[in-house]
Design brief:
Helix content is 97%, strand content 0%. It has 72 residues and is an all-alpha fold.
Length: 72
């Protein structure tokens, strides 16, 4: 009877170790995914900043052209 309980305990421990390994692998996958998304977000932020600067440049040019037209 005791041997059976040890066998059950051993089986449970093996399953826990397998689950731990699977969770560790999944955690690493999720960390990599998060890292990739962080890099993607940084690229989008840079692009957005560039577009904002371009918008301001266009706005400045349009304002100066409108001032010239008002003088006419």
């Amino acid at each position: 009877m005791e041997f059976l309980r040890f066998a059950e305990l051993e089986e449970r421990i093996k399953r826990l170790l397998e689950e731990k390994g699977a969770l560790k692998t999944r955690c690493q996958e999720l960390e990599k995914l998060l890292e990739d998304k962080d890099l993607e977000l940084e690229e989008v932020k840079k692009k957005l900043n560039g577009l904002h600067e371009e918008k301001e440049t266009v706005r400045t040019k349009v304002d100066s052209l409108l001032e010239l037209l008002q003088d006419i």
